[in-house]
Specification:
This protein is α+β, with helices and mostly antiparallel strands. It has 13 helices and 16 strands. The model is unreliable at 1-11 (pLDDT under 50).
Length: 376
């Protein structure tokens, strides 16, 4: 009898897939004791990151939306089977009543992380459904982008830029109009989680970081109709430059009327007689007819799932997230490679000692340096 029962027991052992479902902790434990995970990664390995510039091949043109809004960056980021799509939109703002120009004021960057219905049920850890995690990450990123440590906001306040005097050059109608209307840009950063297999925090932050790295601001032109007293906002692009090279009179007049404004936006002196050729030469090798968004630093995060007191898994999948709770290391990385880090505990992960945190920071810094220095 004993022998027969043993035979039945061996025949009825669950398959790996079933074992994975009914005892995920035991299933993972077999792998973790060997220092690997079921997907083949080591415990401190981040999944392969892919970044795709969705505006590449647009011949340097901006995607203009309603109300003169313009898409200045669009990137898709993948980490394993987690796919994030980040779009940065520049929104023009005007004021009809005179107001004092000031460097203080409303936030210039808004961030939204959108979780479609098919994704929401999977944002889950050992503490339960993480329904508000996307709002926490949105708020964190918005605070970082509006702090002045990431984006110099002066580059978005065109009215202030145009008020700066140029030696020997009188003001012009275009600059006066833009200053009077207090023209400025606001940036809307929208991240959509298209597919989810874990690690919402890191992939959202990475998607915004790479989108900002690839963003360009348009060169604003104002088309004046003095007889009608009307003004139309336009953007400098390669088509206009081609028409100017073909001696199109209307385009040449448009560029001449905007010469001072263009000079100040680009930070270069333009002489009327050679302006067109100078602009053609300047934009010959650039990816876009515009000015690159100036970034002082970028935020990065690396998230660790706490499996037990001594075992932490970098970049957890959605399956791994159910095995514990997570803690992230937040790093603000500057252009010179220096950075400041801090613990970011959005998932209420408890019981982590300072020594463990120091170890996690070292791992996170190594990963961030690798990702930040990689050309995608």
């Amino acid at each position: 009898m004993i022998s027969n029962q043993g035979a039945v027991s061996r025949d009825s052992r669950p398959s790996n897939d079933v074992y994975r479902q009914i005892d995920p902790v035991g299933f993972y434990g077999k792998f973790l004791r060997q220092g690997i995970r079921p997907d083949g990664r080591k415990l401190n390995a981040f999944r392969k990151v892919g970044v795709f510039d969705l505006l590449e091949g647009n011949h340097g043109s901006f995607q203009r939306q309603e109300q003169d809004e313009v898409i200045i960056s669009s990137c898709r980021l993948t980490a394993g089977e987690t796919h994030m799509h980040c779009v940065v939109t520049a929104v023009p703002t005007f004021y009809d009543l005179p107001i004092e120009l000031t460097s203080e004021g409303d936030d210039v960057v808004s961030v939204e992380i959108d979780l479609p219905k098919q994704v929401q049920p999977y944002i889950y850890d050992a503490n339960g459904h993480c329904a508000n995690l996307n709002f926490c990450v949105s708020a964190m990123l918005a605070n970082a982008f509006n702090s002045g440590n990431v984006l110099p906001t002066a580059q978005l306040r065109l009215a202030e830029l145009l008020m700066n005097p140029v030696a020997g050059v009188a003001s012009d109608l275009v600059s006066e109009y833009l200053v009077k209307r207090r023209f400025s840009w606001k940036l809307d950063v929208n991240v959509v989680c298209e597919e989810y297999d874990g690690n919402l925090v890191d992939t959202s932050v990475l998607a915004t970081a790479f989108a900002l790295r690839k963003a360009w601001l348009p060169i604003i032109l104002v088309d004046l109709n003095e007889s009608l007293g009307s003004y139309e906002i336009r953007f400098l692009d390669r088509e206009l430059l081609d028409l100017a090279c073909s001696n199109d009179r209307m385009v040449l007049k448009l560029l001449q009327n905007n010469r001072i404004s263009i000079s100040k936006q680009l930070g270069m002196e333009l002489v009327e007689e050679s302006m067109v050729q100078h602009l053609v030469n300047h934009f010959r090798t650039t990816v876009c007819v515009g000015r690159p968004l100036h970034v002082l630093a970028l935020p990065y995060t690396v998230t660790f799932l706490k499996y037990d007191e001594q075992t932490f898994l970098v970049d957890p999948t959605k399956e791994e997230e159910k095995l514990g709770s997570s803690v992230s290391i937040y790093s603000l990385r500057r252009l010179d490679g220096s950075s400041s880090t801090q613990q970011l505990n959005l998932m209420s992960c408890s019981g982590i000692t300072n020594d463990v945190l120091d170890s996690l920071e070292r791992v996170a810094t190594h990963i961030i340096n690798y990702i930040a220095n990689t050309e995608y």
